[in-house]
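To: structure desk
From: M.T.
Subject: fold request, one chain
Message: Could you run this one when you get a chance? Sequence is below, nothing fancy, just the single chain.
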Amino acid sequence: MTVTRSELEAGYTLSQADRAHFRQHGFVKLKNVLSPETIAAYEPEITGKVIELNTQHLPLAERDTYGKAFLQVTNLWQHSERVLEFVSSPRLARIAAQLLGVQSVRLYHDQALYKESGGGVTPWHADQYYWPFATDRCVTVWVPLQETPMEMGPLSFAAGSHTFEHGRDLPISDESERVLQNALAEQEFPEVSEPFELGEVSYHLGWTFHHAPPNTTDVPRRVMTVIYVDATMEISEPVNDAQRNDLSWMPGTQPGDVISSPLNPVLY
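Reply: Done. C-alpha cells follow.
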C-alpha cells in the first residue's frame, strides 16, 4: 500500500504536446498515469462502495436513457478513507492544475460511473450544463479501473467542441444525443473514440462534449472520476434546476462566493 500511495503523490511529466492537445481539443488522454498495481489496490474498495451506496435498483429495461447509461454514485470519499486517498491524489490534481493553467485546484466532487453489462449509450452532453461555475476552468479526470475496449463503452470526445456553444442547454437525454450528434457533425468536430489501456486516463473540460457507446460485454465498465475546479472559482447564479441542485455540493456558500466549503478542499 505504501508503494501505491507514493505513486498517487508523485509527479507526472506532461509533455508540451499533451498541454497543446488539451488547449486545442478540450481533452487529452494520458498513458501510464497509474500503474496496474495502484489500480488493483483501490478498485475493490471503490467497487465495494458503489455496490453499498448505489440507489438504482430498477432492472435496466425499466430505466430511462440516463438510468441505462451507468450507475452513478457521488462523493465516495466521504464514506471511505481508502477512497479519500485516491480522490485526493496530488498526482492527479497537479495534472488538472497544469492543464487548466491555474496555480491551484480544489475538489468539486467525485463520481463513480459504472456501466453495467448491457448498459446503454451515454448520450452526448457537456458536464458544465450541471455546474454553476463562473468560468470554464473545471476539468474531469476519467479513470477506468480496468482495460476498456470499445465493446465496454469508453468515453468518446468531440475534439475542439469546448468552443461550441450550441447545445449547452441540453441535459443528458435522447434529445441531446440526437441534436448534438447532428450539430457536432455539421460543425466537423471530429469524434475521437478509442479504447483505454489499463492505467490510461483522460481529462476533459466542462464544456467539452462527449458520449460513450453501450457496454456489450458481460462485465461492468468500472470508472472513477474526480472533478477539479480552479481554487479561485466563484459560484455563478444557477440557470437550471440541475445547477440549483448542485449548490448542495458546496454547503454554506451562495452565488458570488468562492467555492470554499468543507466539501471542496484544495487538492493541489
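Reply (cont.): The two ends are 22 Å apart (CA to CA). Let me know if you need anything else for the meeting.
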